[in-house]
Amino acid sequence: MSSPPVARTPRLPSFPLVGRSAPAPAVPSGGRLPRLLLRATATGSALLGLAQTVLAGSFLNGHYEALRAHELAAMALGGLLLAQLPVAALVRRGGGAGGARGPWWPLGATPLLLAAFGAQMGAGYERAVGVHVTLGVLLVSGLLFGLVGAWRPVPVPRATATPDVGRDAEAEAADGGGPGAGPGAGPGAGPEASPAAGAGDGGSGRLPRPTGAGADAVEVTP
């Protein structure tokens, strides 16, 4: 008995996957130094601001020798804020990821902190304790907010999605397909289909009935 004809599944064309994303490129550290300097000045200013609260409380408790240390710490804080001005300009110019433009807030917040510091120093020398303490609380709060912003991680730009054409081409070459392997590749396509064509009719030479699209409209006879 002759075996029934085996219908081959036509090979579908392969298309590149557009939605596949490429790995993110390495981001150069062009703006790392300005960010490190900003973190150093912001950390030193915040520590001096917290030390000022401790020294002021010690003075109000009756330790009058803490007043001199409070004054020296205030001068050191003013020097750090002045040094932070050019650092903030460097961060804005090239303190972002890969040397891009950095955030604007250091260049805007540092002059405000300097203005509050000057007013707080003036109120202290004028013995205006109420204004001096109020401005001191606001100044320390601003220094702590600047510390958090300076140590915040720098956002890295996202990688754009690119078509992975090379990987699909390698997979197509491994499967044996090529540019001609499309929807028309089906039964009888290629030299390997010749033995299967004569195996289903007992060697009589009759071609098998087409099984693809349009099989009902075309009748193949020997």
Features:
6 helices; mainly alpha; 222 residues; disordered C terminus; single chain; 0% strand
| H/E topology pattern | HHHHHH
Strands, total number? 0
Helix percent reads 40-55%
Principal-axis shape equals elongated
Low-confidence stretches: 24-28, 178-200, 217-222
User: Strand portion, in percent?
Assistant: under 5%
Roughly how many Å is the radius of gyration? 39 Å
- Class from secondary-structure proportions: mainly alpha
Largest sheet: none
How many H/I helices?
6
Euclidean distance between termini CA atoms: 21 Å
* Mean pLDDT across all amino acids: 75
**Which oligomerization state do the chains in this entry correspond to?**
single chain
Secondary-structure topology with pairs:
Elements: H1 32-60, H2 66-94, H3 105-125, H4 129-150, H5 165-175, H6 194-199
Short description:
With 222 residues, this protein is mainly α. Helices cover 53% and strands 0% of the residues.
Walk me through what this model shows:
The protein has 222 residues and is mainly alpha-helical. The protein has a domain at 32-150. The protein has 6 helices and no strands. The chain has helices at 32-60, 66-94, 105-125, 129-150, 165-175, 194-199. α1 packs antiparallel against α4. It is elongated.
